[in-house]
Each structure stands twice: as C-alpha cells, then as structure tokens.
Design brief:
Residues 5-112 form the HIT domain. Pfam families: HIT. With 112 residues, the chain is α+β, with helices and mostly antiparallel strands. It has a single domain (5-16, 24-35, 44-104), classed as 2-Layer Sandwich (HIT family, subunit A), CATH 3.30.428.10. It is 28% helix and 22% strand. The chain has helices at residues 5-11, 50-56, 58-74, and strands at 18-21, 25-29, 37-43, 81-84, 100-104. Strands 1-2-3-5-4 form a 5-stranded antiparallel β-sheet, covered by helices on one side. Strand 2 and strand 3 form a beta hairpin. Helix 2 crosses helix 3. The termini are far apart. Bound molecules: adenosine monophosphate. Adenosine monophosphate (AMP) binds next to loops.
C-alpha cells in the first residue's frame, strides 16, 4: 500500500532500527518507546488490523506472534514481556498496518 508507513519501513523506503526479519515479518524498534524494550513486529504483507489478518491468513497471524516471541528471546526479556495489538480508534491504533508491540525490560504493571 503506497501511503502506509509500515509498508514503507518493510520496503526500506523509511529508515527503522530493525532487530529481526523473516521472509514474512519485520521487527523494528518503536520510535517512541514505552518500555526499555519496545519493538514492533509487522507482517510484510499489508493487513489493516489483527482481525483482517486473522480472516485473510490465520497461519500468518501465528507466525507473527512466533516472530514476536523470538524478538523477546533475542532482546533477553527473561523476566517476561507483553504482546499488544491495538485495533481501531478506541484502542488507539494510529498505524493501519497490523503490528504487535513487544514490551519489556522492566515490571510492566497491570494492564490499565
Ligand atoms: P499503535 O498506536 O498501536 O498503532 O502503534 C503505532 C506505533 O508506531 C506507536 O507506538 C508509534 O510510536 C510507532 N511509530 C510511529 N512511527 C514510527 C516509525 N517511523 N518508526 C517506528 N515506530 C513508529
């Protein structure tokens, strides 16, 4: 999708601090980290949100979460981590290309 920020990061047209890649996914550091480790994991293919991805390619959704778990291992989040995916306006989704936030590196507290 031509005007999608994360498609541009996947294509290398917008710079990002990439921490891991697979044939189907790219993981890069969030530009405004909310925890010591804050990485976004996206599929290379454009899907608007997690529901759209689950409908179109459910197996890829599994591999996206597997890639997120790999990022947690690579980043040494031995104490635990949080995977988060916002969907829609009320959840605060600001980029309409499904992404999993990998958060960790300190006690994260309750999900408020
Ligand atoms: P969400 O609010 O769940 O849609 O998450 C979008 C995330 O993308 C936010 O946490 C932003 O800080 C992050 N973000 C926006 N632009 C960039 C960028 N150019 N590189 C890395 N992360 C970004």
């Amino acid at each position: 999708m031509t005007d999608c920020l994360f498609c541009k990061i996947v294509a290398g047209e917008v710079p990002a601090d990439i921490v891991a890649q697979t044939e189907e996914t790219v993981a890069f550091r969030d530009i405004a980290p909310q925890a010591p480790t804050h990485v976004l994991v996206v599929p290379r293919a454009h899907h608007e949100d997690v529901g759209a991805l689950a409908s179109a390619e459910p197996a890829l959704l599994g591999r996206l979460f597997a890639a997120a778990a790999d990022v947690a291992r690579i980043e040494g989040l031995d104490g635990g981590y949080r995977l988060l995916t916002n969907t829609g306006r009320d959840a605060g989704q600001t980029v309409s290309h499904v992404h999993v936030h990998v958060l960790g590196g300190r006690p994260l507290g309750a999900l408020a």
